[in-house]
Amino acid sequence: MLAGCSAGGSNNTAFVSGDGTTTVLPIDQRGEPLELSGVTLTGEDLSVSEFLGQNVVINVWASWCAPCRQEAPELKAFDIENPDVQLLGINTRDNDPAARAFEEFFGITYPSIIDPDGSKQLVFRDSLPMSAIPTTIVLDKSGRPSARILGAVTRSLLVQVVDEVNNG
Fold first, then answer.
1. In what residue span(s) does the Thioredoxin domain sit (predicted)?
2. Which helix (H) or strand (E) covers residue 89, if one does?
């Protein structure tokens, strides 16, 4: 007998969870500002260019990802404690009802762009490519990809990485 489960509607939910490896790019190695836009889980159009002048923390997540559930309370706390930083999710390889239920269960209020096929992640391929879910990318205040964390994050790690991005 063979049994399995998936997020529904997609058979591509296999993932590799990161080990917490953190990469911070020196200022002179940061590329062009990121061009990322899409429709959020609430149906609104959103672009990261709306947040120029402040750091943006982009977290790639899925409702079926155990490490994503582990880090959700940390991301929520970081969002509340750091109003000067914009948090943005990219919900990948998921279905909208499951993603909305995840956000409701964890009390997530920051926006998440829908990325059902993983194509939104391709904007990072030339700077800080993703190899795990969850992955968190920090943009500097100019909108340039500046740091990447592979795996679940904590709010203290996010504070440290954002500080390093701004001072380094």
1. 25-167
2. strand 86-92
